[in-house]
Amino acid sequence: DDDTFSNVFCEHSKKLINVHLFALAAKFYSLYNLGVCTPLEDILEALRGDNQGIRGIKTDEFMNNKKSHEVQVMSELVNNIANYCGIKQVIDIGSGKGYLSSFLSMQYNLKVYGIDSSNTNTNGAHERNRKLKKHWRAYQSRGRANLESQTLEKANDRPAESEIKCKAINEKPLNNHSSLQSQDQVTIQDLVPSCGSTEIATSETSKHTEVDLVAQTQSDESKLSEEVLAVLNVLPADAVEVFSSSQWNCGELCEEEKAQRKMASVKAKESKSSESNLYFPLTSCITAETELSDIITDLEDCMMVGLHTCGDLAANTLRIFTAKPEIKAVCSVGCCYHLLSEQFENQEDCPEEVWGFPMCQYLKDQGWCCGRNARMSACLALERVAVGQMLPTESLFYRAVLQVIIEEIYGVTKSDRHVGKTFSKSSSFIDYVRKSLKKLELDDSKLPDSCIMDYYEKYKHRMNELEAFNMLKVVLAPCIEVLILLDRLCYLKEQDNIAWSGLVKLFDPVKSPRCYAVIALKKQSC
């Protein structure tokens, strides 16, 4: 009912008069309550079909907790989308230090191009990827040692059971092979449509079946510990040596199975020589007009991903996806809403420019504008505040008083320069103000310490007001984020070449506040 929240603000003064109703209204218009998101479990189940995928090592051994959580969840989804569409190439837009790109290439054997505008990030990603490969090889060696040790222990403890298992292994791969050959690509009826070529999918299935014959023998031989399985499964096909039949000591194999294993070994070696480097960090500034073929010479059918693409980059990722026929799918998690360009915020500037907001025709027709303050609020983390991670009230107070000082003393109301993280490097309010003025290129010599402290004392008693005001902004944050995300989703819904699109909550919002992904798949002929 439109009248439910009519008493939140005073009809005449427009001031907030009912805080409780304000909070209820904000909750009502959140993404969770609107019911427009597709559950992650549902889309993974639809994409996988009967294939439950693989489990890898925990990334928190070489990433912080937040990044580990993001990379684990998003890489699994990206891999399932790539498999469903029958593609092996992934383009990571705004790849930064290459966390997601490295993991996609090493865990899932995908060919990943990581594109970032910062040459420093690209060089850092190269070096980090080199070190990560050594880390991966260490897990490989440790996993193989554990595998051999546990195999010997089981053989000594239960020789009779081992004989039965070995006999079963000789028969089982052939049965699996025939059943996999006759299996069609999984279809997703209502949730996700068919994507990509059936011929490609069939070819990929056949290819994986031959290589997986060796892995099947390995997994059926004994029930290894979860740690060993995790280490082996995380490695790509070209990083795991193919075990010969003599290593397993399971008796004589039939000639047909020997031939099949020989073929799998040859193909694995070919794959190792041709795909020894599956991650390629590149430096380039991406815009809506970017021609990917100018950056990636061997561009093929692929999908585009972005983990916390900043400002307009998230919008441009979707525009490139819809415009380029070779990009079959997209999975984009945006961030930094305050850096979005808005078409109707400064209407006199650049009328022909491509804007970050709004994207969809519906909001364009309405001339919708959020404004910088609202977009800044959209970046706040309600879920973190809800579990006790309170707002940095003192640093916000410092910043608010500083703004009064530069307006009243220096007459500056707008600047292209930023104060940044000066608070954490300051020993006092005076130190904070002087460091900030230097960053803003303002002369601090005209401002004595006593004057600075006068401003502090003048507004100190209003710190509680500032905290209450910022808490209201936090409560409102999900509503503004809804507007930005639904704008992007509606833009995809307006395109003729999109078969399915949706919003998916990927991450735990306490660990990663910008947790929503915009996902879309092209129609088969597109």
Automatic annotation (TrEMBL):
Residue ranges annotated for the Methyltransferase domain, each copy included: 66-343
Keywords attached to this entry: Methyltransferase, Transferase
By its UniProt entry, which SUPFAM superfamilies does this protein fall under? S-adenosyl-L-methionine-dependent methyltransferases (SSF53335)
Q: Which GO terms describe its biological process?
A: methylation
Endpoints of the signal sequence: none
- A single MF term (Gene Ontology): methyltransferase activity
The protein's matches in Pfam families, at most eight in alphabetical order, are given as: Methyltransf_32 (PF13679)
The protein's matches in InterPro entries, at most eight in alphabetical order, are given as:
Methyltranfer_dom, METTL25, SAM-dependent_MTases_sf
Protein name (database record): Methyltransferase-like 25
